[in-house]
Every structure is written in structure tokens, then in C-alpha cells.
Amino acid sequence: MPSAVSMQGITKRFPLVVANEDVDFDLRWGEIHALIGENGAGKSTLMKVLYGLQSADAGTVAVDGRPVHIRSARDAIALGIGMVHQHFMLVEPLTVTENLVLGSEPRMGPGIDYGSARRRTRDLIARFGFDLDADARIEELPVGLQQQVEILKALYREARILVMDEPTAVLTPQETHGLFDFLREFARQGNAVVFISHKLDEVMALCDRMSVMRDGRMIGTVDRAETDVRRLATMMVGREVLLRVEKGASEVGEVRLEAADLRLRHPTKHQALLDAVTFEVRAGEVLGVAGIEGNGQTELVECLTGLRVADSGTVRLDGEDVTALGARARRERGLSHVPEDRNERGLCRPFSAALNTILGDHHRPPFSGRFGLLDREAIDAHARRLTEAYDVRPRATHVLAASYSGGNAQKLIVARELERDPRVLVLAQPTRGVDIGAIEFIHRQIVRARDLGLAVLLVSADLNEVMSLSDRIIVLFEGRVMGELTQAEATAETLGLLMAGSTLGEVAA
Ligand SMILES: Nc1ncnc2c1ncn2[C@@H]1O[C@H](COP(=O)(O)OP(=O)(O)O)[C@@H](O)[C@H]1O
Ligand SMILES: [Mg+2]
Q1: Statement to judge: residues 132 and 264 lie in one domain
Q2: Does residue 356 belong to any structural domain of this protein?
Q3: How many distinct structural domains can be found in the chain?
Q4: Are residues 290 and 211 in the same domain?
Q5: What is the position in ligand 1's atom list of the atom closest to the CA of 45?
Q6: Which of 69, 190, 413, 432 has its CA 20 to 30 A from that of 384?
Q7: Per DSSP, which regions of 137-208 are E strands?
Q8: Nearest ligand to the C-alpha of residue 39?
Q9: Would you say residue 164 lies in a domain?
Q10: How far is the centre of ligand 2, averaged over its atoms, from the C-alpha of 198 (Å)?
Q11: What is the pLDDT, as a whole number, of residue 74?
């Protein structure tokens, strides 16, 4: 039987990188095939070549045994290929049905036959066991259901080969189970799935074969039966990695950071961004904040760090009410912040690495002397010490921050925020888009900070990260704290229910 897809010798160059270098990839009918690799490995590019969104510089593609030239998404769709992107491409004010038929509306005379479109949509929803209302507007649907609409769009166009690009990044564990059930059923019916991910546990649970990419090259393809998470990680990174965070019991001290009844309304929509958020973080502990992104995490961190003023409520640092103080004043009181957007807020990209290691403290000794003049020598020595200790590469401290990779940029920020002797550390999505090697390192630094007695607040959409690093966990949903659990109590299942809006009482019942 011919392969569903056979790609051979695919090369795709961009001005700065070779995203795919002589890549072979084979997808069989009936299988779920994982495409894994660190950020920037070339996974999305390879699939965009297949879907007609990028044209390869070299290589051939065959679909179901026939050589094809795919020049556009339209060509790909005609060949039975569907792709669900990391960022959805739905039209928010339109309904599910309207999104499905967009661009291929069934005609009835001069008009559009919505009756038959709606019937077909309902049939598809029923056939694949989705939990969707054909007449719901996209903007009213939670992210998990929007993803179902994206999948339905492909199915509506009769896709038999489905490419899912990091689909679980935006889902709760329960939604992920639902997605996996669908994908298994879809493959069982003889179709084929490419599942892009860097979550190795997931890949082992779902996929029949795994192809691993690194630095634009295909490292190899393995059967699930002949591999495990550790071996996959080694193929991905090119060396052995420590997958579990080593963490002893914590010695908890006094309260250092407090949020009391923080409330914030959306400036235009009738919606609460933060709703009576209350918690405290003590010295020597990590308080994790779990939740699907967009449930108030960003606003919470902004209110805590002084980048935004809440409508009401209080923030205290070491017992002092700092609600009215700005970011710099809070920083001077020992609050460090690793922001979620390292390019916008974490680094000043046109500045050198050295200057970036003193950002926020540049106006103080030892970096500035009398008259506010920067002391270049002190700054360079500081930067050399940090880049060495945190293994930031390249080591040269005069290079521009803009030229660092994601992982090295993040290590630079973590180094700066930790090595200023803070009392409280607020981390937002500290390892997003960072490679496994750097994640391992950053996690160890977070545990070290806690063991040194800092109060650590860890906001992360990565449930594994929250569960492995936190001593206690709160869950945010639509700006509210749905419940608090100790590390021992927190399972992915319980957290998932809270993340989807259940209360602790409902979860226990
Ligand atoms: N449109 C583009 N223009 C320039 N460079 C790109 C473009 N798309 C991807 N790249 C680069 O190609 C490499 C591979 O990217 P990508 O395929 O998105 O990786 P992955 O999906 O594995 O994270 C990266 O270095 C990325 O920066
Ligand atoms: Mg990608």
C-alpha cells in the first residue's frame, strides 16, 4: 500500500537559516505520526511545505503514491490534506457553520444554501462525536471548541490527512483527552495524522511512530514500541537530559507577597479580568498559578509588579502596602520579575547583553556612579559573571540581545532577575518557547531560589511545569481563583477541571 505522504529531500532556506535540510518524511495510512523537536527545529516549516504555505527549494512530495506539486493550500485541500495551525484562523463574529462553508458556500440559485450547509455541519459533528452547536458564534466558544471547529473545517473539505500543529498547547487535560479520542478514531478509519508536539509524554500516549527533527534535519523515525521518553529527549536535544525536577521539602518562612481582593474590569467589555483575587506567598515556597492562558494571568502579574493599577484591592510586599507604587519602587524593595514576553518587556533588544544584565538597576551603584554615569567596567564584570554562571551563549557580552536564541535570552533574563538578591520572584511563562536543555537549567534555578528562601510566584500555562515546581497551586479561571491545592493534592485531572471553570466543591463531589 502506498504511503499517505512521502516527502523526500525537502530543503527550505530562509535568509538566516536553513529551516529544512534534505528532510525525508513518511506518513502511513492509519497511523498517528508524531513530528517532534525543539523550537525552531523546522517542524512547522516541513508541514507548511506539505500544505502549500511554503514552497521548498528542493525535494519531492508524493500523496498516496502519486507525485504532486502543491503550490497553495487550495492544492493541498484538493489532495485531502487539512492543517490545524497553532493560531486559529477562524472568523470570530461568524457561526460554526458559516466558518465551515467560507470560501466554498453551497449555492442555491444566486444565494447561499445555508440549510444544507447546516445539515452537513450537524452530520459531521455527530459523526465524530464533537460537542458543538452548529449555530454558535466562534467568539462565544472556549478555545477547546474553537479547535474542534478548525478540525471540522478540514473534515468538511474531506481531509483524509490531518496535520495538527501543537494542538494541545491551548487545551485542558480533559480537552486533550477528547482530542486524542477523536484522532484515534480518525486514524482507525484509515486516515492519517501528523501530530506536532514537544510534549513527549503526550506523544508516547498517542502516536504510533515518531519522527524527530533537530536544527532543520531529520534525526530519525522510531516506533513507539522501540522507544521511550528518555530516548526521544536525547534524540531531540542531542545529549542526555534530566527530565524530572529534583526538589526537597521546603522551609517556609514569613509572608512576603500578598494580593488581597484584587479586582480589575475590562476597559470596554462587560467582563472581569481579575475578580477578588487573594493569596499570599511565603519565603521559601513556590506558589504556582495554573490556568489556560487569557484567564487573568497577564493582568495579575502586571498588578503585582506595578505595571498596571487594579481597580481595587491591595498588593503588599514584606507587609508594606505597595499598591500605589510603580514598578521601579517595587523593584527597589526586592521584587524581581521574569516577564512573559521576553522580547517586549524582558530584554531591550537593541542593547548589548551586558546592558541587559543591569536593566532596571542601571541607575544604582555599582552600575551608575555620581552624576548617573554608567560604569562600563563594573557592568562588564557583572555581565561576564552572569553569562558564565548561567551558561548564556554566546558568552561575548557586547553582542546585541536581539541576536540571542529564545533559550539563551531567557537564561539572560533569569540571571539578571535572580542575581540582584531579590526577596520575591515573579515568573510568568518562564520556559515558553525555550528548548529542553534550557528548561532543565531554568527549573533548577527556580528551585534554588526557593531553597535560598525567596518567595516565588510561578505563572505558567504548562501544567507539568506548575505541578513539578510548585509547593502550592492556585488555578485562575476568568480572573477568579477557583481553588488552592498542595503539590501532593494536585493531579492533572483536578487542575484540569478547575481550569475549565469547576469549583473545588464540584471537583470533590
Ligand atoms: N517565514 C519565515 N521566515 C524566516 N525564517 C523562518 C520563517 N519560518 C520559520 N523560520 C525559521 O526557520 C526555522 C524553523 O522554524 P519552524 O519550522 O517554525 O520550527 P518549529 O516549528 O520546529 O518550531 C527557525 O529558525 C525559524 O526562525
Ligand atoms: Mg512550529
Answers
A1: no
A2: no
A3: 2
A4: no
A5: 17
A6: 432
A7: 161-165, 192-197
A8: 1
A9: yes
A10: 10
A11: 94
